[in-house]
Design brief:
Radius of gyration: 19 Å
CATH superfamily: Electron Transport, Fmn-binding Protein, Chain A
Largest sheet: 8 strands, antiparallel
Number of domains: 1
Number of strands: 8
Helix content: 10-25%
Number of helices: 4
Strand content: 35-45%
CATH topology: Pnp Oxidase, Chain A
Length: 176
């Protein structure tokens, strides 16, 4: 039932277009979303079923990076099955503003003392975490760092309809 006086957004009415963005334009939109947000929902699977955990992240191109306590439920789940899904989304103020993505990949855990840890920490802005927790900003945390390289991304942006593109787009990592 339509509210009195409201007008539909013309480009949202009817069947959505099916056109695909080229890889470069889609990649740019995804990276813009990654850069404009700092929280995601990490989905893992454990012996009790699925677990969705809000996590602060940083990114390096199509790789998401976050820290975690090795004893946390999400880390126990990752140890059991490293396949994860990560949801990232912009604030929603109406259908026209829907913008987000689902990232699918495999979590890789690195601990202090290993090159992979130092490499990830070069991108993870841990100093802001340290300041928030009243810790020294001269030494990185000594907890695990997790990286998830995107294998596949399902990107949704309803504004794309306005320009004749499908609101749901699909990105795949290049084959190695």
């Amino acid at each position: 039932m339509e509210r009195s006086g409201s007008q539909p957004t013309p480009w949202l009415v009817g069947e959505p277009p099916m056109r695909r963005l080229d890889r470069e334009r889609l990649s740019e939109r995804i990276l813009n979303l990654f850069a404009s947000q700092n929280m995601c929902v990490l989905a893992t699977v454990g012996s009790d079923g699925p677990l969705a955990t809000p996590v602060r992240y940083y990114h390096r191109e199509f790789e998401l990076i976050f820290t975690a306590s090795p004893r946390s439920p999400k880390m126990r789940n990752i140890a059991r099955d490293a396949r994860v899904s990560i949801g990232i989304f912009a604030p929603h103020v109406g259908l026209a503003s829907s913008r987000g993505c689902q990232v699918f990949g495999t979590a890789v855990v690195a601990l202090p003392g290993f090159a992979a840890f130092d490499d990830a920490m070069a991108w993870y802005r841990w100093q802001s975490d340290a300041a928030e927790r009243g810790r020294s900003s001269t030494a990185p945390p000594s907890t695990a760092v997790v990286t998830v390289a995107a294998r596949r991304i399902v990107y949704t942006e309803h504004w794309l309809r306005r320009d004749g593109f499908a609101p749901r787009q699909f990105w795949h990592a290049p084959k190695s």
